Amino acid sequence: MTGTPIPPRGRGAEVAGWVRSAGGDPVTGAAVTLVDSGGQQIARGTTGGDGGYRLPVPGRGRYVVIAAAPAYRPAAATVAVGDSPAGVDLVLEGATGLGGVVRSASTGVPVMGATVLLADFRGEVVGSSLSGQGGDYSFGALPAGVYTLAVNAPAYRPAAVAVTVSDATVRQDVELSDAATVQGTVTVRDLPQPWPRITVSLLDDAGTVVRRAHADDDGRYAFHDLEPGTYTVVAASHAPVRQAVRVGPGSTHNDVRLG
User: InterPro entries in the record, alphabetically (predicted)?
Assistant: First the structure.
């Protein structure tokens, strides 16, 4: 959209104009920046109640005017400035948003307090939030593109989904699977405390160690965030002891006795 440039105020070169929405309404409080051909910032200001702006220019040349405002996509335009004021208007398109609900995959109950991270195609985190009481989350004013939405919460396995944001607000619900845990206590017969350090290992069906931890002074150990399946718990201080344990959704208790 073009319009009549703001009349010059005083002498000297300057760039003036209006910032409006795609519907023609003035965008109040938009940040307007002027940079030279080398990318150096020359001037900066904000639009008034009518969406108008005015920026001083140090001299003749070609410049780039950039306008940005919350809930809008930034816009830029090139302007050639001579000895008199130059006029350039900018139109800001509404930015898209992303929102949804985090739920338990097994019960459908909303998950409150889940950490929700949003990363762009480069893997750079562009936003983070915690889900609300209803499991809701939202990100506003997103440029169009492909994003990765990563969600994690205590007692659940983390989840990540790809989301494409275009020209409308996108809804993306996320389901978190219950995380399985194995926890218990290692005891040693006929050996006074304090016991020597006890190493507890968790092996999968192939016999590969997938987790390893040390029991605390009371012999307690725990492995969190496990895929359901069959594991072997190995506790060792001197002679190791092996026990098979089946892990399903939720928490599994398994005690180990040494000696």
Answer: Carb-bd-like_fold (IPR013784), CarboxyPept-like_regulatory (IPR008969)
For residue 151, give both structure tokens.
């969600």
**CATH topology of 96-176 equal to that of 180-258?**
yes
Distances (CA, A) of 15 to 6, 30, 78, 138, 218: 9, 15, 11, 37, 74
Distance CA 133, CA 127 (A): 19
Q: Rounded to an integer, what distance in angstroms lies between the CA atom of residue 192 and that of residue 188?
A: 8
3-state DSSP call for residue 6?
coil
**Domain 180-258 class in CATH:** mainly beta
Rounded Cα–Cα distance for residues 161 and 153 (Å)? 15
Q: How far apart are alpha carbons 181 and 21 in whole angstroms?
A: 53
- CA 226 to chain CA centroid, nearest Å: 24
Residue 238 has a pLDDT of 61
Q: What CATH code is assigned to 96-176? A: 2.60.40.10
CATH class entry, domain 14-92: mainly beta
Cα 156 from Cα 90, distance rounded (Å): 47
The four Cα atoms 224, 225, 228, 234 give a dihedral, to 10 degrees, of -40
Q: Would you say residue 47 has pLDDT above 90?
A: yes
Backbone torsions φ then ψ of 46, nearest 5 degrees = -130, 155
| Domain residue ranges in the chain | 14-92, 96-176, 180-258
